[in-house]
Amino acid sequence: MQIFLDTAEVDEILKRDQTGLIDGVTTNPTLIMKSGRDPEDVYTEIADETNIADISMEVVGDRDNMMSEGKRLAAEFGDIATIKVPCTPDGLSVCYGLSQEDIRVNVTLIFSASQAILAAKAGASYVSPFVGRVDDNSFGGLCLIKEIANIYRIQDVYDTEILAASLRNVRDVGRAFEYGADIVTMPTGVFDKMYKHVLTDQGLAQFEKDWKIATET
């Protein structure tokens, strides 16, 4: 059971990394664009200044471009690099080629069980079903997690892990793990809310009140 942060904001990653609860980071071109920084500067800073052991680095373009970029990033960043490719014919071809060289690959933009099957066959280390985006299209994102997990279990797929992405609330985080996700990735705001519960706040307030009374007598 692992927790990744879905962001390219290094300052925000640094704050959460101090908790010791973060296992990895996922990025994509949109998140990199929002950060306003060069992708490799982001990767280097995360690698140098945090304890993060896994960064998904997305490659784009045609098959040849994705393959060459994936190999280059894996060579430059070593074991911390997971090369992220889309679930397309070119992307899965790149996944197969990189996995044959023991390079970790995250196949993203998964919206069906059939895509997750192809990604596992191509040697993906991770498949990333997009829970929130599936929900936006009126069919169950969490049910997709369960469906993929059941198929992998029945077919004895152990080398490909389910990385639940596009999670927008704390409830979906818990359900994703319940339904068979190995990893969840989420915005920092969702991670922060995982600590919160009104009964915890009430209990803490009561403990503090009682402790004050006990130490004053």
Number of domains: 1
Look up the CATH topology: TIM Barrel
Roughly what percent helix?
Answer: 40-55%
- What count of helical segments does DSSP give? 11
Reading the helices and strands in chain order gives: EHEHHEHEHEHEHHEHEHH
Please state the average pLDDT score: 93
Low-confidence sequence ranges: none
- How many E strands? 8
How much strand content do the residues show? 15-25%
Major sheet, described briefly?
8 strands, parallel, barrel
CATH architectural designation: Alpha-Beta Barrel
Broad shape: globular
CATH class: Alpha Beta
The CATH superfamily label reads Aldolase class I
Q: Major sheet: order of its strands?
A: 1-2-3-4-5-6-7-8
Structural class: alpha/beta
Intertermini distance: 45 Å
What is the rounded Rg? Answer: 19 Å
Write the layout of secondary structure elements.
Layout: E1 2-6, H1 10-17, E2 24-26, H2 29-35, H3 39-49, E3 55-58, H4 63-77, E4 81-86, H5 89-99, E5 105-110, H6 113-121, E6 126-129, H7 131-136, H8 141-154, E7 161-164, H9 170-178, E8 183-186, H10 188-193, H11 198-216
Parallel strand pairs: 1-2, 1-8, 2-3, 3-4, 4-5, 5-6, 6-7, 7-8
Helix pairs in contact: 4-5
